[in-house]
Amino acid sequence: MDSFEIDGHTLKKKSETVWTIAPSGKMRVAVKMFTSEKLLKKISQDGSIQQACNVATLPGIRVASIVQSDQHRGYGFPIGGVAAFDMQEGVISPGGIGFDINCGVRVLATPLTKDEVRPRIQELLDRLFENCPVGIGSEAKIRLTDEEYEGLLKDGARWAVANGYGNEDDLVHCESQGCLAGADPAKTSRRAQARGRKQLGTVGAGNHFIEVQYVDEVFDEKTAEAYRLTGKGQVVVMIHCGSRGFGHQVCTDYIRRMEEEQPHLVAGLADKNLIYAPLGSQIADDYFAAMNAAANYAFANRHILAHFVRKSFEEVFGAETAAGIRTVYDICHNIAKKETHLIDGKPEEVMLHRKGATRAFPPGFAELPEEYRAFGQPVLIPGSMGTSSFILHGTETAMKESFGSTAHGAGRRMSRFQANKDFTTDGVKRQLAEQDITIRAASFKGVTEEAPGAYKDVDEVIRVCDEAGIAKKVAKLRPIGVVKG
To answer: What residues make up the domain containing 124?
Structure first.
């Protein structure tokens, strides 16, 4: 099939993994989708394709409105959306970043094997559940002075290390070394700061988790070894969370402010949830500074959680084991960053939005740890609860075809409301038990909302990334136990 009709749009097949929609109406650029016929059939009714077309109408958008293979409907932008905007004529849009600013993933490599961990998995999950609070409204034990809080928002994971959480090696193995420049706590509201104050070092709810996994398959042995993966059976820990209530409130505050201060923009939008601020305006500068502060909160949050993961392993397996746990990488997938990309053969600085999309930079990238530079940036893509997750590496193809971006997860195929109707807690637990996966959850609702059946086939999502060349497979991970909100 060379074309596909969805939501009144004609999708043209460019390859087995790339489809496009030509500009029409108010669209300034085309839509470019990394997907497959199998995945397209799962999104035909969710509205995300129309959202991608809506993004293509925004001022200053460059090259294309891009969507990754895990795409589904989001707020304004589709989740899986990538959009680059000209620094003079373009915009910054909270909907292109998301409410959970710098939601992201960290993977820790342990010196243990699945055969060593599986017999004690319940004990380990109990310690993780105690040390890393999960669930709606979960609160941490960490309490900060105003001065400490300001330092955290400015310095991110660097603040965490300076205050005894993690180490310098962890920092080196983080995107942007765990800190975005230009963060200004003064541009965040008291309400945002109050919401985040008691949530530092917590996982939260929804699709956030701490998962104990093992390396099930290695596709690229040299890259896996460079990434601290020692081979099949090695146990790793994946942390998936973000900026908690702090980031949510920052997003909420600035959407409201943009709407109130720019009613003339709202009236002309294809979707009011695409509200934006023109780059160079005061409100755009304020939002970017506040967003960076929220991103730094998230980096620090995952850093602190990693500290308590080590503590949990120490309580179960001893201090020597905990000391051997090292960070593979930490990466965000809800962010806007100033990046330089080749456009029409010339380097151009853009405001790059990734909404449920992961950076996938190639070999030679200077920011990477020295031992990673020959292999490219690690790409961490979680599956759904009960399915595989993947580690991949970034590529030159991604830089040329997707602004150095790839998918961020399996991607939902049904709403949380529908999942709660279709699945039961006992049924999900039984399904996981049949796969020898242990779960510790804060609520029944959190289990059914995140049932594996609520998500797309992660193997197909990853196949598209790999075959399109925008991220190449390194290793497949399978869960042993999961802690959920």
So the answer is: 104-484
